[in-house]
Structure formats: structure tokens, C-alpha cells
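Entry for the shared binder. Reason: the reviewer on the internal report wants the predicted structure included alongside the sequence.
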Amino acid sequence: MCGIIARIGRGDATETLLSGLENLEYRGYDSAGIAVQNGSGVKVHKTTGEVDDLKSTLDARPSGNIGIGHTRWSTHGPPTDENAHPHTDTAGDVAVVHNGVIDNYDALRAELRERGHEFESDTDTEVIPHLIDEYRQESEDTELAVRKAIDTLEGSYAIAAIVDGEERVYAARKGSPLVLGLDEEEWFLASDVPAFLDHTDEVIYLEDGDLVVLEPDAYRITNVAGEPVERSVDTVDWDPEDAGKGEYDHYMQKEIHCQPTALSNTIEGRVEDGTVAFDDLESGSFADVDCVQFVACGTSFHASMYGAQLLRAAAVPTEVIRASEYEAAAGPVDEATLVVAVTQSGETADTLDAVRTAAGRGARTLAMTNVVGSTAAREADDAIYIRAGPEVGVAATKTYSSQAVTLALLTHRLAEDVPDATPADDAEAMLEALEDLPRHVETVLETSQARALAWEVMDNQSYFFIGNGFGHSVALEGALKFKEITYEHAEGFASGELKHGPLALVTEESPIFAVYTGGDDEKTKTNAIEAQSRGAPIVAVGPDDHPLVDVADAHLCVPETHPVWAGLLANVQLQLVSYYAAKLLDRPIDKPRNLAKSVTVE
């Protein structure tokens, strides 16, 4: 779960590598490093800390037209200078950056040590340059040596390597994302498109088993055996400005405020005359589906709860399963089961494993993702895109809203297609209200009192979030956001569960955020009042016209709308509370400790 970049072409590579790493820091920021090759050796510069720390150590920028870079999220070994990438062989002729986990590195390290190789780090990655060096000594053919090294590895990897004296970059992928960027004067390789989006929007999404050789004016893609492989060139429709902070202090702040635009893009062209349409999914596409399973992690799991509630209301048997538990928890699966994988990046390791397990059991699979060409989109039988644009902040914001809306639209389509389903009586009203959702989010952003409330609720012991129905998943998501970026203790509960244990934790230093939607909110009201009687301050989060507002200590208001969408408006208020609280506490909002944006390792 790291970010890698490689560049070859005309001009100097260093600035491109550094800016690319800055754009990849959401994937890891424990350490950073680059290696540049200019015909007079491979120059490696790396350090613990963020890319800015790396920049500050470069008294003189290394010069060369070929280079690789890495920003790390630690898996094997703590974040130290020695464990930072790139790693080299003993002589320093081969430099490698790697995202993934090498399962058999212990055995490989022992074998290589017996042959005289010396290791300086605790990482699994360091065996790779030593393997390449070992095989180069046998054949003096670097490409063959890379193939042999790759064939020796077990586990997951996206790898880029450079070698002293060679105008080439070697790369391969298995189980970790890697994309090739094509420009007229330079080629790029990276874990994700934002690394080079300032330079080109022409990309090739590499697949497992691909090995790439880049030269200044050409590239070749083969399999590990050396046989040529054809991959299509795609155009990314993201604007480079979407990947920057612009006028905002943090990416998270920008992405919260981008939600009206993101939601407009999510909805565009998908609702017409009371019907829902998705590209490449004709009416009746789900007529052979008997039941639905949503698989997801973290924020995507909470969005999946939204969709599942709508499907259950339409009498479609539905489960929401944490992707990491899918193999054990899935229950019966067959060809009439639709497994919907919800993943922002399309590269989440646990979710991909769940999709593969489901497909192996005969299920139909559908990926709901933000990234065209991602592994989930390629491997699933069908794909639907949430169209939220790039999200750089580690804590998901606009992608949650876009996922929930896309899932709501999908459930409407499923209710129309699945035999014996009974679409909700108010489905037409729900779709009509959806048209106003981007404008309503804009209203929340313009009128929110979240900044002032953040001042009031600081310096408490715990923060509890409760909700029922659609408010339940919002409460869970609100608590997750709060704990992610403030580092304060926060928990979310179904409203009725507060008195079944968690109430023992409630004191006057335990603010309760009570999310209500105008739907089934009675349990939220009664449990909030019960907590208030124990001294807890109550923050009501929902529309004005609700009895809870009259008894709450504070109120974060959202516009009147359909209950399905009121929860998403409440979620925007909770995002703002988390953001301003974290800002008051001077937390690293875009890069919370120990977390990375895309969890691509198990």
C-alpha cells in the first residue's frame, strides 16, 4: 500500500518524480525516495518522513532523464531511512521500488545471503534488486534477469527498476495497481493516474502478469515468458486541477465542497421520466438475479448499507458483507447471486479477493468504483462508475456521497428487473427529490454551523453517533470520519442499541450526535433523550421540522427532502464537524497517522 512512479524520456526526471510522489502521498507517507540514472551511476536519495522532507535533504538535485520514486506506507519494517525505497543490490547498480507484499522473502533472503548478498533493511522489497543482480550475473541480459526474478516472487507486487548504464525502466505487476502514461516526449509508470496527470491523460492500465520495458522512444508489454501482449490505450477524463487543493487549506476541505459537482456528475444522464439507466446495462439485465450481496470495506461498507436498506424495502434478499470476512460469511452463493463490489479505487485487496471468491462460486459480479480501468472494473462481469473525480484526502468524503447515490439508483434498477421485487411506493418521489440533492448540499455548505459547533464539543472524552434506518449508516460513517482525522474516541451505533451496553460509557463528556432523516426516527429521539438524562449533550443532525430539535442542545440543520437523501445531507454536516475539529486540534488532516487511501495489501 505504497505509491510508486517511474519516468523516462527527454529532459530531467527529478522534478517529475518529486511532483508525482506528492500526488501519490495519499497512498503512504512514512518515508519517500527517488533513484535517478544518468549514465554515471544510479543515485539514490531517500529519507524517513514525507516528500517535503525528501526535498529538504536534496542539497543538489540529482540529474538524469531516467528515474523511479516511492512513497511508503510501512508493512515490513518500521519507517526508517534504511527501510525507505528505492532499494538496491549490494553494488548499487540495480534500484527497485515496490508496492505490495512478497510472501516468500524470508526464504529468498536466506538463499541470497548464502551466496554473499548483503542486506541493509528489514523490508521484503530488498530481495528484488538482489535477485535481479543474481540473474544478471548468470546471463548478462537484464530483461531476462528481471523475468527470472519476477517468476521467483510469490505474493503481490507492482515493481519498477532501473539499472546503471541502461536507458530502460523495467516494470511488472501482480495484484497491485500499475498504470502506464504515454506522452510525446516521455513515458510514465505509477500506482495511480494523479502521479502524472499534469503531463498526460493517455494511459494503459496494466494487468496481472504484464511486464513492461520502457525506453526513451518506445515501450513493450509482454508476459513473464516474453510473449507480446496488446493493451488498449484509454483517455482519462479527469481534469489535472481536480487533483490539486486549489484555494483550500486541505484536500479534504476541497473534496467536501466539491460534492455538489461530484453528485451532479454521478446523476447526469441516469434518471429520465422516472426510470434509471446505466451504460451497458439494458433493461432486464438483472432479471436472472434472486439475491444480492454487497461486499466492501470502511466507508464503502457504510455506503453499501444505504443501498441494502433500499433493496430490502423492495423485497430483494440482500446482505452487506465486510470484504475481509467474505469467504467465511457469504453463505450460499450461486449463479442467481449478484455480488456488488463497492470500492472507490477499484484496487482494495480484500474486496478484490471477495469478488474472485464469489466468481469462483458461480456468482455474477458487478464492480461499483470511481476508477475506469481499475482491477475491479476489469475483473467483474459488469462495472458502474460513481463519477466523483479524483479524491486525494485519505478520509473519503465526496466518494461516499457518490457511492450512496449510485447504489440508490442501482437498487431502483434491480427492483425493476428482479422477479418478485416490489419497488417502493415513493420511488418516483425519491427520484424527483434526487434532482435537488446537489443544490441542497450547496445549501448545507453555505449555512453550516459546524465550525462553531466544533469549538463547543472539543475537550470531551468520547463522541457517540446514533441513527436509525438511513441514519444508521450515516452515524457509522460520521464516527469513522471523526476518529480518522481527529484521533479522538468516536463510535457509531444503531439508535436502539445505545441502551444495550454503550450507555454505560455515556457521561456529561460524551456528546451524542443524533442523525435523523424524517423517516423512522422515533428510536433515535427516545435514545438521545435517555442519554441526555445521563448528562450527555445532544446534537441533532437533520431537518428543522422534527421533535428532536426542540430538546437538543445544538442542531445542525439540513434542507427538507426525501428521507433517503436527508441522511446524505446530514453526512455533509458531520464531515464538516470532523474537519473543523481536526483543524482545531492541528491534526494532519489529509494524511492521518497509520492510514493510507487505497488498501492494496491484506
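Summary line for the report: The CA atoms of residues 3 and 71 lie 5 Å apart.
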